[in-house]
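Box S2. Input/output pair 1.
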Amino acid sequence: MNIRPLGRVAYVPTCEAMQGFTARRGADAPDELWICEHPPVFTQGLAGREDHLLAPGDIPVVPTNRGGQVTYHGPGQVVAYPLVDLQRAGYFVKEYVYRVEEAVIRTLAGFGVTGHRVAGAPGIYVRLADPGSHALLPQRPQKRNPGEPLPPPDFTGLGKIAALGIKVSRHCTYHGVALNVAMDLQPFQRINPCGYAGLQTVDLSTIGVAVSWDEAARVLGQKLVATLAP
């Protein structure tokens, strides 16, 4: 996988470049991992509802073709876009999502933070009262009987630290994952993050972890390359 550090880049041209790369790539094209940060922008996924945009104000709102609802990107957030040929890698979308989340969990572990999954709510969450706790969440994904619906997501005591939104075209992925490092979190209060009213969003700085954007980006990139390997 080729890693491309892009620095701070505008959201729309980056999305257009990802789409173009995916449309043009042949069967032998190496996978790529684009790592960047964006100027302030709200992005609205395919399932996005206008009522989740509470008060966007002067921050632009950009419709996009990834899955999910509305989220925020801004300085101090590491955004990683894995461009992976799933057919060649040998795993399906559900496992791809699991692997991306696992890369975030391993990244956080390197900084002394325990990341958690919540049933029915993609992304990675941390305990607000004890971010390093390894105790299993009662809200964690658990085995269900065939046909049993997912429980409604329960975010009690949790903050979201990483958001996930993907698109698959021609069995190739684009869009990706955003890890909050040290950013202005106020814009998250202008939306229902990922479609959930009242969901608290945190970053590493908020929970007491002092790490540079460059270091967080380096570690997340390493973990994604490892977990997404065929």
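Box S3. Input/output pair 2.
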Amino acid sequence: MSPPSVAPAAYPAPRLGTLTYYALLMVTFLAASSAPTPLYRPYQLAWGFSTTWLTLVFASYVFALLLTLLVSGSLSDYLGRRPVVALAILGEIAAMLVFLAADDLAWLLAARMLQGVATGVVTSALAAAMLDSDHQRGPVVASIAPLYGMGFGALIAGALVTYAPAPMHLIYWLLLVILCVQGVWLMRIPETAARRAGALGALRPRIGIPPAVRGPLLRVVPAVVSSWALGGFSLSLGPTLIERVSGIHNPMVGCLITFLLPFIGGISVLTLRARPPRSAVMIGTACLMLGMGGLLAGVSSDSVAVLLAGTAVAGIGFGAAFMGAMRTVMPLAPPTQRSALMAAFYTICYLSASLLSLAAGVATQHLGLLPTTYAYGTLVALLSLTALIAALAAPRGDAGCSPRPV
């Protein structure tokens, strides 16, 4: 009797070099997205636009990203990861050039929208490529890379704006060089997804959520919304809040909240990566509630130390909730639908960051920064409580898979 046939593995052997490349590229794109944050206040002072316009500059990036995700989110499932990534790198390079040429608000908006398009093209492709490269480590790395990218992008930009020459341009030159190097490096990276027909049809605006993913995704949506709403606030109004509480007019000090939230978030992802997704969501949402209480206490007492301590605790929640939510849904999609699912997942993330931060900008213009901060923080805490209750109510065996530690 002939031996039974062995079904092919759903995932290929891990490719550590490919995973590392795509992770570093994700870091670069997200660093570029947060790099303008310490420059918002200097831009505002130099060009004389309102706080509403300040948050709109941030939101314009996110809106462009979302529209692009809806159109191109599943494109790499048809063309392969490398062509889509190459196109996005060219778009990001063009955005850096527009930033370098910017001399008024219109140029800044154009640069941010172009950057949003490039990031929208690459986001789901990179997440899918990391899962292709290593289905165990990929979801964890895909959770960490955006956080470290956002954190270090803001911190390095803040340092360059404060202490280096050409504060309005040097960070963009640095990113431009890094992107060119990574574009050349891409030619050495093997393709991780086979080409298939249907690319033009995939450009129809749509969000792909496989039926098996819908229930788990619905349960983790409050965790995603609360964590990314806090991230959007820190990226848009965080430096202004620090300046108001501390009385120090220094871009490096102002970007501490923008750095601390995702940096601690990345550490929490590394620390909690072996825990089941349900447990990570529970820890994350609890820390978001505690952290928001500390942050608001710091604002109330005019204490930067208390504010940053609260931000650090919220950062634990930011990373844990994001990782837990991603690990709940990401491995559930079949290979041909991974990129479309990540487009849907990141759509929820970025809408949470942009719409709520834009509303906060408008509220700040009419009510003031501090009342807006109190209301915003309360909303984040309530969303986190909702997510915690949903996680507690979820069946233990229905919260995603638990990958082995990296």
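Caption for Box S3: Confidence is low (pLDDT under 50) at residues 1-9, 398-406. The two ends are 41 Å apart (CA to CA).
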